[in-house]
Automatic annotation (TrEMBL):
Residues 269-387 form the ABC3 transporter permease C-terminal domain. InterPro entries: ABC-4/HrtB_transporter (IPR051125), ABC3_permease_C (IPR003838), MacB_PCD (IPR025857). The keyword Transmembrane applies. It is a multi-pass membrane protein. This is Permease. PANTHER family: ABC TRANSPORTER PERMEASE, ABC TRANSPORTER, MEMBRANE PROTEIN. It comes from Flagellimonas olearia. One of its GO terms (cellular component) is plasma membrane. Keywords: Cell membrane, Membrane, Transmembrane, Transmembrane helix. It is found in: Cell membrane.
Length: 395
């Protein structure tokens, strides 16, 4: 007796039940895998984009907004601060490096950041083609920007005022590409870096070359010399200056806590769907065993033993979980890629797709365990089968 071929026929005999079982189980697997993958990808990308930045100093307002705008470049700035006051802070003995940044323009949605040569050091970035900025109106492109718009050394383009992509207010002064950074897989890949004077010039800041009092920047990115900086500088800045200090790691941890509630909710929904799918599989298999009790009893009289009948039911359940697992992986990857594409279109932020095989194995193992439990409950009539009663149609 070919147990496998009989299982295949049973599998195809009730297409509606089979389809529903596979659909529900694959959706639960897809949700679990997608949530795990997105959580891991977002967390790693956010931590990656921090670079060597320990503290951000900017205008008073929301500290989280300050971090999102100045470190991750996905929000509007809280305002501007005095460049002269920021320079005083950079001379503090607890500060190892302080990098001023100023922005407010974009090129087709990609932000243009005015800063110093130390900006690339925060991300351990090096020039792949060309050179660094040496004078105003020169720019160095992140690798993703250069690839997206097919820009090369010597090309020129006009920047647009504001941070929104759809803005008809273009500046008259063209920017010239003099360098392209190597790919870093960090936020720098999606930025256009220039000199501070470029930002001031295109916004018509009429200031003397050495007169810092009239100049403003968006924020200051700080790296501490020692852990003592974490304990004293943020509190001192927030209490005794007109500026605001925010710690990126602390603010992002708070963000994880806020979003973690939604992640846990979706995860529990996925587990509930998984349980429902296993109940559906149990009902399907159990009905098959009960409805075909006469055929199964007849097979016993022709030499089939209990293990063979159990295998027939088990193979059908394992076939369902195998197909659902493959479909679930495909659905999760399609869904995650779709979400990441939307993020890329809206925020110009690319997130790497991290596929953790350990989590895939754990999710697959959990689904298999649940289905094995359903199979175990469904085969109980086979084990307790009374052949003589069934064949004589007795209840």
């Amino acid at each position: 007796m070919n147990v496998w071929s009989i299982s295949i026929r049973n599998f195809r005999h009730k297409p509606l039940y089979t389809f529903l079982s596979i659909l529900i189980l694959s959706v639960s697997i897809a949700l679990l895998l997608a949530i795990q993958q997105m959580e891991a990808s977002f967390k790693q990308q956010l931590e990656n984009n921090l670079g060597n930045i320990d503290m951000v100093v900017g205008a008073k307002g929301s500290p989280l907004q300050l971090v999102l705008s100045s470190v991750l470049h996905i929000d509007n700035p809280t305002g501007n601060i005095s460049y002269k006051e920021a320079q005083k802070l950079s001379k503090n003995p607890l500060v190892k490096m302080a990098v001023p940044i100023s922005y407010g323009d974009n090129y087709k949605g990609y932000r243009i950041v005015g800063t110093t040569h130390n900006f690339s050091i925060l991300y351990n970035a090096t020039i792949e083609h060309g050179r660094v900025v040496q004078k105003p109106m020169e720019v160095v492109l992140g690798a993703a920007v250069a690839e997206r718009f097919d820009l090369h050394i010597g090309d020129t383009f006009l920047s647009s005022h504001g941070l929104a992509e759809k803005n008809d207010h273009d500046h008259e002064e063209p920017l010239t590409v003099v360098g392209i950074y190597k790919l870093t897989h960090k936020i720098l890949d999606r930025l256009i870096v220039t000199d501070l004077n470029t930002i001031w010039d295109v916004h018509h800041h009429e200031a003397a070359p050495n007169d810092n009092h009239e100049k403003e920047i968006t924020s200051l990115l700080v790296t501490f010399r020692s852990p003592m900086g974490f304990l004293t500088l943020p509190r001192n800045i927030n209490s005794n200056t007109t500026m605001q200090a925010a710690l990126p790691k602390y603010e992002l941890e708070r963000l994880y806590q806020f979003t973690g509630v939604g992640v846990k909710t979706v995860t529990w929904i996925a587990y509930i769907i998984l349980i429902i799918s296993c109940i559906t599989i149990f009902i399907s298999l159990y009905r098959m065993v009960r409805d075909r009790a006469f055929d199964l009893a007849l097979m016993r009289t022709y030499g089939a033993n209990v293990p063979q009948l159990v295998k027939m039911v088990a193979y059908e359940g394992l076939l369902i979980v195998g197909i659902a697992f493959v479909v679930g992986i495909l659905l999760s990857q399609i869904g995650v890629r779709f979400i990441f594409e939307m993020i890329m279109d809206q925020y110009k932020q690319s997130v790497p797709l991290l596929l953790n095989y350990k989590e895939i194995a754990q999710t697959g193992g959990l689904a298999l365990l649940m289905v094995l439990l359903a199979i175990g409950l469904a085969i109980s009539p086979i084990i307790k089968m009374n052949i003589s009663k069934i064949l004589s149609h007795e209840k």
